[in-house]
Design a protein that fits this description.
Blueprint (H helix, E strand, L loop, with lengths): L2 H4 L4 H8 L6 H9 L3 H16 L2 E5 L1 E5 L27 H13 L4 E5 L8 H14 L4 E4 L2 H11 L3 H11 L3 E2 L9 H7 L6 H13 L3 E8 L5 H18 L2 E8 L15 H14 L10 H4 L1 H7 L6 E4 L20 H10 L3 E5 L5 E4 L21
Parallel strand pairs: 1-8, 1-9, 2-3, 3-4, 5-6, 6-7
Antiparallel strand pairs: 9-10
Bound molecules: iron/sulfur cluster.
The site of iron/sulfur cluster (SF4) has 12 residues, from loops.
């Protein structure tokens, strides 16, 4: 038994995890409420090791927000703008393709594309965007749209969700993003994202995508007005859908950023809260392979520490992040591959460049990045 757990009152949960037994909602709440972060981390580290071994991943990707105009006004959102706002924007298809072209030169394998619910762009804009990016490079993986965007597109297309997803897939969509899950409990949702889709709708969009053979990630926005029990409820619903479809490739807990919005929270979640949330997620979500420490919200230093608290992924290079930064994130807007490889190595893991579906693109094994090349991108799709 791990040193940190030997004299802890969480020993039984360590033993359950070691035996491969699923923990209950009550167990998850105990873990959240425990003050013994080291013991919680040790259990999560065991679960992580059993699930993915000694590797930790990152992806070379680029974020593109096609527009920040949105017909909704979620209370927590610092990103959305109305047409009357001076800092609203909307990219043309040519501008999107140009951003993608520039990023391809840097070796990215994925474009991560989301925006607000635009008041007037037609469904054809989204189809043409996917087709244009697919035509640019057939190997580029297109991870696009949150569940609420899919519902918006289905409304625009005047077609059922599954048919809309089918059309998007045919146009080039590879994966849905996990954004927009927030916290599932209705009362919390109303307090932070009134007007957004319900938990059931979010889950059903992902369910239908999975039924088409698609894969997606999922998220949880924590550290605002929700309770710890709300977090457990959220994780339970994700675990249930994963039992049903096995379509989630990873889970990304997102620490709430408090600036420029209307939620009365003055400070983002602490490092302690971030680590325990990642750890409990790893232990409870026993049917998920990958748990991400999202450096944009945590900072790379804390994300690195999270690799010892259940996380096995640092997310990506991103290049141009808007949503968290408009909400006050003080992290850089991009991360170099070298910084992520170094962070993973120092944590004692083997760095793996992954693709959208967490398949390895490059495994660093025991090799050391060559001097002078480690700050630059590596060629895409290289299997080392
Ligand atoms: S969170 Fe999304 S749906 Fe809500 S206001 Fe912001 S951009 Fe619009």
């Amino acid at each position: 038994m791990h040193y940190f757990v030997q004299r802890s009152d969480l020993r039984d949960l360590y033993e359950k995890t070691a035996a491969g037994e699923r923990i209950s909602d009550a167990d998850a709440l105990r873990l959240f409420e425990s003050r013994d972060l080291n013991a919680v981390g040790a259990i999560a580290d065991l679960a992580r090791q059993r699930r993915v071994g000694n590797r930790a991943s990152y992806i070379l990707n680029r974020y593109i927000n096609y527009s920040n105009y949105c017909i909704l006004s979620c209370q927590f959102c610092s990103f959305a703008r109305k047409k009357r706002d001076a800092d609203g924007f909307q990219l043309s298809l040519e501008e999107i393709v140009e951003k993608a072209r520039e990023a391809l030169k840097l070796g990215i394998t994925e474009l991560h594309i989301v925006g607000g619910l635009h008041p007037s762009l037609p469904f054809t804009y989204y189809l043409e965007m996917l087709r244009a990016l697919r035509a640019l490079d057939g190997r580029l993986q297109l991870k696009c749209f949150t569940a609420i965007e899919v519902l918006h597109l289905s409304w625009l297309a005047r077609k059922p969700v599954q048919e809309t997803l089918r059309e998007l897939k045919a146009a080039g969509l590879d994966s849905l993003t996990g954004g927009g899950a927030e916290i599932f409990r209705k009362e919390v949702r109303s307090a932070i994202a009134l007007g957004k889709e319900s938990a059931e709708e979010y889950l059903d969009v992902h369910r239908q995508w999975h039924q088409l053979g698609g894969r997606s990630t999922c998220t949880m926005l924590y550290g605002h007005v929700e309770t710890l029990a709300d977090r457990v409820d959220h994780l339970r619903r994700l675990r249930e859908l994963q039992d049903e479809t096995r379509g989630f490739v990873g889970f990304v807990p997102l620490p709430y950023q408090p600036e420029n919005n209307r939620i009365p929270v003055s400070h983002p979640p602490t490092g302690y809260d971030a680590l325990r949330t990642i750890a409990v997620s790893r232990i409870y979500l026993d049917n998920f392979d990958h748990i991400t420490a999202y450096w944009v919200g945590l900072g790379l230093k804390l994300a690195q520490v999270a690799l010892s608290y259940g996380a096995d992924d640092l997310h990506g290079t991103i290049l141009e992040e808007h949503i968290f930064h408009m909400a006050g994130a003080a992290t850089p807007q991009l991360q170099t591959e070298a910084a992520m490889v170094k962070a993973i190595r120092e944590a004692g893991r083997i760095p793996v460049q992954r693709d959208t579906f967490y398949q390895p693109v490059k495994v660093w094994e025991d090799s050391v990045p060559e001097a002078g090349t480690s700050d630059g991108p590596t060629p895409p799709y290289e299997h080392a």
